[in-house]
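EI: anyone free to look at a 440-residue chain?
SC: sure, send it
EI:
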Amino acid sequence: MYTSLFKLKELPFRLSPDPAFLFLSAHHARAKAYMESTIWFQDGFVIITGEIGAGKTTLIETFLQELDQEVIVAQINQTQVSPTEFLQAVLVQFGYTPFNMKKAELIATLNNFLIEQYASGRKVLLIVDEAQNLSLRVLEEVRMLSGVETTKEKVLRIILAGQPELNAKLDSPELIQLAQRVRLRFHLTPLSEEDTRAYVLHRLEIAGAAGRTIFADSCFPLLFRYTGGVPRLINTLCETAMIAAYGEDRDRVTPGDLRKAIAELRWVDYATRTATDRSMSLGHAATTADIAATGSRVGPGLYVSAGDDDEILARLVVARDDEIVGELPLRMGRTVVGRTSDNDLQIDSRLVSRHHCQIVTSRDQSVVEDLNSTNGIAVRGKRVRRMALRNGDVIVIGRHELRYVDVRKSGSDIGVDTLAPLPELTMDGSDDDLGTALQA
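SC: here you go
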């Protein structure tokens, strides 16, 4: 293959979760530390979430390799199972053949095994990957297992890893008791542009690059733009680009090779792709734990996430009680507004839902969409579920007003300093709930 041309010992961008290639960004290192904490703490129960390809499975495999032999592990990867099948799968990992056991016998056998291991001074760890596929009934079984304890401590350590939908399940009223038992929850975000570069260089070095330049420096902004910093996507695009360079008998990858690879993969840039995928499903963004919590405070109760260098297409000018408190640039993609820190725009107010609304911006327009919030949103004096925004529109969220300034329509990049005061908002009184909320 191309390894001889590039003078590499092995393929650097395989998709298999190989711990030898693990790149520990600050976020990945923190997630790994949280996994390790399940062994340190007597009641270790950790939830790790991340988008597809974020590196969860590679972290798990690395963590398992480093565990002391005294730790007994059950690792479950098949999660579309019934409660009985799940308990059977756990016992199989512990060396049993439980397929003729009834559920009560399965539970008793597991409990006895856990107590025996504790008495022998061994720690027992259950790791479930792809845990977002577990049904509520199976998650209830996990809760019951987490409750097995002696008079001093819990007997079973648990790590659940999965896609962001797992957080939505854990936050459901049916699983409130399970959520209360979780010690730590962490969301694994994509790599930054700087970390994307370091990730590529790290994998090339492990594969035998020995400091040689294989990817031109000008490749990395394009690579980040089309992968969004998602490790699996980085691997796919880098592999395809190296094959393109190999086809030209060159031992260095250029932006032209990347563009050929992008064309072959039929990719659009990451922000557009994810915005399109998610905006087509109206209910999907009711949970948005996949958004990086990298915000900064710009006003009372208001935080905005750090932006990148892409073209600014519009702006949100944010005001509370007729006082402008900040602004947020809108670029291609999705911007989520809500009360918690995992939003692009955080509004710290009891009238704002955890994930309140989103604004999906394309080249031609921006569309605001309510995310099943408690108090809703209003535009042009009317409560709306979804609406294409016009230049100057004001989105009402609780006591906050977000004025939409379309840079494409105005023909200039307008900032807060040049804006006239927000117009007084009036409601027609047709929505009593919203009217009450605005006055609260």
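EI: Residues 278-309, 412-440 have pLDDT under 50 and may be disordered.
SC: 👍
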